[in-house]
Amino acid sequence: MVESGNASGNRFDDDGREKRTGTVLTASAHIIAAVIGSGVLSLSWAIAQLGWLAGTVILVPFAIINYYTSTMLADCYRSPDSVGVPGTRNYTYMGVVRAYLGGRKVQLCGLAQYASLVGVTIGYTITASISLVAIGKANCYHRKGNDATCSLSNYPSMAAFGVVQILLSQIPNFHQLSFLSIIATVMSFSYASIGIGLSIAKVISGKVGKTALTGTVVGVDVTASDKLWRSFQAVGDIAFSYSYSIILVEIQDTLKSSPPENKVMKKASLAGVSTTTAFYILCGCMGYAAFGNRAPGDLLTDFGFYEPYWLVDFANACIVLHLVAAYQVFAQPIFQFVENKCNKKWPESKFITSEHSMSIPLIGKCRINLFRLWWRTAYVILTTVVAMIFPFFNAILGLIGSCAFWPLTVYFPVAMHIAQTKVKKYSPRWLALNLLVVVCLIVSLLAALGSIVGLISSVKAYKPFSNVN
């Protein structure tokens, strides 16, 4: 958005686009910003449903699966892939699927990807408002006591979050988001570390909940049906918590062409997934050790901790700042998709294609596109309104996540890898890859069932326009 002076040397890449400047650091920041969300604070709840045995065992295999399939997807960024000869760039996930698989699968990929991206932006609006409200409630509890009635509306917080996103949405493209992703990464480390630290302090104090190898106890903590559905949901939460495939190709498209983008992306994926796994294990396990089978859905916003209130406030502020930045990481592919379609359909329209230079105080000269300004503002307003109307949308997001996880994180990367490397049908490798696809499909279906049951409960308790916590 901000104009810069002429750079020395070649300013364009081999495809004629502005030279990419992304590195392992920026790609890792994008991945961590996308993966370590406030959901890390709910992993103790997931482990409570499954217990020490299944809960901790599941964390590592799904980290490995997500990393493994991400390396397959990274290798498909250029096509055809020939040794020593760089192929044509594929700028989006749909472009990659079109290059290697084609047909109806391209539309299926687009539906799954963009439905997930839209869902995430709506979910982030709701989650950010919950954290903002939690700050006010923490201060209220500190003044009046933990048993006080402290209720605040989420609507003003959602509106404020929307205003900030309207401004940030004018950043033209993914390539200029690195500073936001770095901020988001620092914030995610901060609130996850606070959650871990507070949990450790509670364990040291000795005032801990009851834990078990198999988690919540039927007849004591939950009913038999609740145990079943919550276990399905917990497995899904853990599996989906690592997934960033919906934006992997877009992240890879920000990288410099030398060294090769796929090699850099694999390093970034390893750094991102390894860091994420360490935080997930620490936060999930220490949270469960502290609260046992009655672990809250979120260590901070569900007030697993009331004091020190200022630290809880700071952690929730970090969550909000992280979500402010992460919203853009997931929204930019949507913006680019619509704008590219419109540019191709109406190339003569000055409203759509013209850039206008203007000076903004404290920022400098910026390039403003009227269509970008109008369309992105409308999108943010729409997602904010949907968040206000459906405050239980996070339950819907769980269902969207379970439906999108299998095709985007597992099926398409494996299918494209088989097509790219020409894996022989019915060979041991072919059978192993397809077994992975089937296992992950079963996980997705079970998680979808758990999400549907949770969604039904949310809808039954829903009261329109009474969004007060």
TrEMBL record:
Span of the signal peptide: none
Lineage: superkingdom: Eukaryota
Annotated InterPro entries: AA_transpt_TM
Record's keyword terms, sorted: Amino-acid transport, Membrane, Transmembrane, Transmembrane helix, Transport
Keyword Ribosomal protein: no
Transmembrane segments: 21-41, 47-68, 177-201, 268-289, 309-330, 373-393, 399-419, 431-456
Subcellular location field: Membrane
Chain ranges of the Amino acid transporter transmembrane domain: 20-456
Name of this chain's protein: Amino acid permease 8
Species the sequence originates in: Camelina sativa
Gene name for this UniProt entry: LOC104755210
